[in-house]
């Protein structure tokens, strides 16, 4: 079981020539410190290093030059180094990626390391893979937005369309890794089938040609030595035609692949435009404010917002025109290349027939040739049978996986996931003294209809329940939770006791729980790690600055 476990955070200030190293362990980690001792800055630095943009103190963000986060995933140990917009992922002091592209960094981390490949589309209709802030939005309750809204602490998520809906379903496992793995395998099977069909066609054309040359060989009777010059010329022409055929075949294959990719992109784009049009129709029939049917949030519904949707639809339609034009151009290129390849194949067959006619028809030699070609025909026919069987196998796999995919989209499965989650959630609500009547899930996320002192405890309960649910389901990339100052949220003494006692649920060393608090919780003796911050605005220290700086420089040399 691969689990994501943070082991160390290092922050370095070249301006002050100071640094700080914080170690973390599995299980419970408690960071204790009064206001302005740096606990929130340390917590936010974890997520900032991972590419999640958070609201940090300007003095901290501007002062820190290098952020380094060491983590384990399964048996492998990695480091992420962030310097402004530059990201490095390091394993065993070897740099796996060094990029200033946020999406390249996220792709390597999620696809190459976590094997999570989830397609999203941006507001300007560009395809991207899941990003770290969307992947880990439920792993953090920050001291700013975190106690008023659920999983909206990161500022670099809004440019992706439907980010809440898709990530809600993924994080709770309703449509998790298996769902997207099946979708990817189905698409891969479709590509394999296209390649197999191309091979089948190649064998068919080749057998046609061989059968024709066998017929010609039977009727050949000229002496090859009498027409040596003619034969040399024909061989030269054949070599030229074969080179041209190979070039045309490669170009045709590339054009077909490009045509397939552009058609997929066009389908996704048209689907997105359809969703936009549905949004606009919905908005036209609503009042000045709209309650989102997915997340429950109130949105303005003025003419300005509806005009923006129309602009998006117009932009999408323009892109559809461009994509269709490009697809048509590619289709035209495919037709032209197919015609050229067909003509080249005809020329090849004709030249080979002429060459065979010019050869000396010694009966014994010709007999051997014919028998060899017949043997080759048998081998080719056997290969055709294997290819057809492979195509049928892939079609069968697509059918089975499509059925499996439907189970991940069914109402029955949604209810099963919801009920399993509620078993844990109701237990946590009781322990935090939150009435179960507050429990209201929409798209698997708690709806925040209530205000008052119950709101922070309701949010706390939901995050803890989701963390414990994923821990129970062994979904290793979500087996961690970071919480900042739950005891500063306007709670009376009785509820502060409940907030402290709930930590008895968070000692499991299979996961990792990191909490920042201003006072002791009573669980310090059960925590695997307690970090005391005592100095006002003096989180950074000079003692290990040079060691940390030298390590960064050593990594960069590789």
CATH architecture of the largest domain: 3-Layer(aba) Sandwich
CATH classification, class level of the largest domain: Alpha Beta
Helix content: 40-55%
What overall form do the CA principal axes indicate? elongated
For the largest sheet, list the strands in their spatial order: 2-1-4-5-6-7
Overall number of domains: 2
Main beta sheet: 6 strands, antiparallel
From the 3D structure, determine the CATH topology of the largest domain. Rossmann fold
CATH H level, superfamily name of the largest domain: P-loop containing nucleotide triphosphate hydrolases
| Structural class determined from secondary elements | alpha/beta
The percentage of residues in β strands lies in 15-25%
Low-confidence stretches: 219-226, 360-368
What does this entry look like structurally?
- α6 (177-218) packs parallel to α8, α7 (228-284) runs antiparallel to α8 (303-358) and α10 (411-431) packs across α11 (454-472).
- By secondary structure, the chain is of the alpha/beta class.
- The protein is elongated.
- Strands 2-1-4-5-6-7 form a six-stranded antiparallel sheet, sandwiched between helices. It has a five-stranded parallel sheet with strand order 10-15-16-3-17, sandwiched between helices.
- The chain contains 13 helices and 17 strands.
- It has two domains: 4-176 and 410-557, Rossmann fold, CATH 3.40.50; 181-407.
- The longest helix is centred in the middle third of the chain and has 57 residues, at 228-284.
- It has helices at residues 39-49, 58-63, 102-113, 132-135, 163-171, 177-218, 228-284, 303-358, 363-407, 411-431, 454-472, 493-501, 545-557; strands spanning 4-13, 18-23, 27-33, 66-73, 76-83, 86-91, 94-99, 119-121, 127-129, 140-141, 289-291, 298-300, 441-442, 445-446, 480-484, 512-517, 529-533.
- Residues 219-226 and 360-368 have low confidence and may be disordered.
